[in-house]
Amino acid sequence: MSAAIDFDKYEVVIGLEVHAQLLTESKLFCGDSAAFGGAPNTHISPITLGHPGTLPVLNRKAVEYAIRLGLACQSRIERDNYFARKNYFYPDLPKGYQISQHTAPICDGGLVTIPVPGGERQIKLNRIHLEEDAGKSMHDQDPSFTLVDYNRAGVPLVEIVTEPDLHSSDEVYAFLTTLRRLVRWLDVCDGNMEEGSMRCDANISIRLKGETRLGTKVEVKNLNSIRNVKRAVEGEIKRQITIVESGGTIMQETRSFDAGNGTSFSLRSKEEANDYRYFPEPDLAPFHLTDEYLDSILKALPELPEAMVQRYVSQYGLPEYDARVICDDKATADYYEQVASIIPAHKAVANWLLGPVKSTLNEQGAAMAEFPLPPAALAGLIQLVEDGKVSFSIASSRIFPELLQHPAEQPLDIATRLNLLQDNNANNIAPIIDEVLAKYPDKVAEFRGGKKGLMGLFVGEVMKLSKGKADPKLTNQLLAEKLK
After folding, report:
1. Which of 115, 132, 1, 168 is nearest to 59 (CA)?
2. Cα–Cα distance between 333 and 204 in angstroms, integer?
3. Minimal CB count within 10 Å: which of 185, 298, 320, 408?
4. Keywords on this record (predicted)?
């Protein structure tokens, strides 16, 4: 019987290369559409196809988006930029080379702060650089041939390259989740890994704890979701440690992950670094970024998620958990901000967004950006509850659905029309209480004998008989008096 493998004696070292497609309308070096989808080879032109005599022209908006991300990651922005030719041949790279950046990335260094058990950790970035995407080879469309769709060729990308600074699949998951939130927050990328607008390759190695020299690196590609990146990293760590423990040698190679069965397989060995024969792109002039231009982008940056979380805790008195969930999505945070500026019940606003609003969106499969209710309408409904005119139960189950159907109608008018306004007249509630107590004489005796938890039963029965209209506070007060 073989001895159990001691996985804990190894340290894992992981670096990530994340490609994020920028949300520009056109491609990086021409006016062809950069939109996802479309019939194959319809978003193309002689420039996309690299025809002789065609010249690229730089997309200014792509440069701005790259700088926005770099500033948010505290990178140093390179003022003097140029593009380089990265020479390699693939069928889906029409020119036979890719226009990228080499020795002077537009964003140098930087960091991304991720949550870890017990606090936070800053993951160091090596660079963020601009480059064009390749097309897409399709091997399952024809039994005899590989077909190529060039719609994606030339779409602007930023490549975010970390240092080998991650040490577990959980940290990788946290990093990608944080990065996806950030690119969406900045409105520079939609972060949709399933559509390929955010793609990740993971470089993974292992070494004994205490070692300082890096182990042999294996790159895992073709990861189409954050969950699958985590699964692939976990599988590769286990594979490498098992090889070493059995006396084998880890080969430097590129592997692909099969999400169906959770395993990876070798694509090609990488004994030596590829020689891409970089040289400055002769068809594009170098470009200089002025301080005024960078300042204008910096001033236009939105408040970043972490800063907003801390402000919601200090300014609005929210629990950190509520603040983090709200700030996980910019549309939700913006909506919360608008409602909270109308009414002072800031915790109640959070409860509504994380409760009825979120449940409704989940049922509809919709995003917060699609929520139809104006902030003032939700604020009006919450205020009805805060003023004691309706209970939360009635507001969420009866008025809220009606308000979604008629967002222009006032919540108070809906409550009045449906006869849902809370009854705070003791003369109306007292007879209902008498009826409930008469119905449960044994429970009354138990209550008076010390089972105070039965108060909830009595209140619930009163609410039921009053069709939810009895004022809960007054009901509790009157019940307490009658049960003495």
Report:
1. 132
2. 36
3. 408
4. ATP-binding, Ligase, Nucleotide-binding, Protein biosynthesis
pLDDT in tens, 235-253: 999 999 999 999 999 999 9
**CA–CA gap between residue 251 and residue 238 (Å, rounded):** 15
Residue in the structure block whose two tokens are 């020119």: 95
Decide: helix, strand or coil at residue 125.
strand
CA distance 225 to 237: 18
Sign of CA dihedral 338, 342, 346, 349: negative
The residues facing 287 across adjacent strands are 81
Residue 473 confidence (pLDDT): 79
Name the one residue in this structure whose structure tokens are 């809220």. 400
The pair of three-digit structure tokens given for residue 99, joined into one six-digit string:
């226009």
Give residue-wise pLDDT tens across range 152-202: 999 999 999 999 999 999 999 999 999 999 999 999 999 998 888 999 999
Determine the 3-state secondary structure of 169 from DSSP: helix
| CB-based contact 71:185 (threshold 8 Å) | no
pLDDT digits (tens, 9 = 90+) for 272-305: 666 789 999 999 999 999 999 999 999 999 999 9
DSSP code at position 165: -
Which residue type sits at 369?
Answer: A
Tokens of 473: 């506070």
The answer to whether 16 and 162 have CB atoms below 8 angstroms apart is: yes
* Three-point CA angle 10, 12, 15, nearest 5°: 165
The pTM (predicted TM-score) of the whole model is 0.85
Alpha carbons 9 and 185: distance in angstroms, whole number = 39
Cα separation of 200 and 195, whole Å?
13
Helix spans in 277-405 (H): 291-300, 305-315, 320-326, 330-340, 346-352, 358-364, 375-386, 392-394, 400-405
- Give the mean pLDDT of the chain: 92
Do 130 and 62 contact (CB within 8 A), yes or no? yes
Alpha-carbon Rg for the chain in angstroms: 30
Rounded to whole angstroms, the Cα distance separating 381 from 412 reads 8
CB neighbour list of residue 302: distance below 8 Å, 6 or more residues apart: 185, 186, 330
Q: At what angle do helices 472-482 and 455-465 cross, to 10 degrees?
A: 120
